[in-house]
């Protein structure tokens, strides 16, 4: 049996210390944790993606650098990469095929950057991606088909951008998407066709946009929708058909913080929605009137029954006035007829 000292020497050769090993294969200014397959290059002032990254890297942290541009084939050779953090890196441009070869990537963080758009082939080769974070950028538009290859995507965060529309085709191919975050953008309309082919979507965050209109069948394809957040938009009125088109088990809706124009019709729509067993307006008590001025600031739940009473009373007054006028006209006509009948000339 070999002596203990020889065994320890052989073990040292087979399993070198992580720091000494990483110093040989790791890019300068990065820290490589060999046994964890983790490479930490964050906050090091990199202007480009460093070369010489270990091919077996599973998690790569590049956040907090000065990566103005993510170049073509920037991560070539990193076939094992699962998580890529590029947050807070001052990134303005992503070149075509920038993420080529990342076919096993599951999470991509591009949040808190300076992006105004993404390339048309953005999703090319990233078929395993499950989470994409693009929040806190300056995205003004997403080209159609940019996300079409993200077959496995479950969470897409586009919040805190400058998107004015998400047109038909933008979300094409995201059949496994469960969470879509679009809050704090500049959306004005939820277009019919924009939510097509999202059968698994459970959370749709649209709060704090400028939405004033939801097309009647825009939400109809969302069979699994559990949460629909619409608070803090520019909605004055509502159509019952918009929500009755949802065929879900249970959908929780938030509608407070909109400038509602409170009238009998709005009361009727909300009453119908509240009566549907699978639709739940969670913040109904916080839905307040903006118009008419007399009701501004009052809860719709407090004034709703009075709205139709007032309208009914108005209708009754008008109806009675019309009836009185008609009766008076008939009486006058009858009197005139009788006078003519009594006239000597007749």
Keywords:
twelve-stranded mixed sheet, elongated, alpha/beta, 23% helix, two-stranded parallel ribbon, single chain, Leucine-rich repeat, LRR (right-handed beta-alpha superhelix), 346 residues
Structural class of the helix and strand makeup?
A: alpha/beta
Helix content: 10-25%
Query: What fraction strand?
Result: 5-15%
> How many domains make up the 3D coordinates?
1
How are the strands ordered across the major sheet?
Answer: 1-2-3-5-7-8-9-10-12-14-15-17
- Number of continuous helical runs: 5
- The name of the CATH topology is Leucine-rich repeat, LRR (right-handed beta-alpha superhelix)
Any idea of the CATH class? Alpha Beta
**Strand tally, please?**
18
Shape: elongated
* CATH architectural arrangement: Alpha-Beta Horseshoe
Low-confidence stretches: 4-23, 312-322
Helix and strand pattern: HHEEEEEEEEEEEEEEHEEHEEH
Q: Find the CATH superfamily.
A: Ribonuclease Inhibitor
Biggest sheet record = 12 strands, mixed
* Rg computed from alpha carbons, rounded to a whole number of angstroms: 32 Å
Distance between the termini: 148 Å
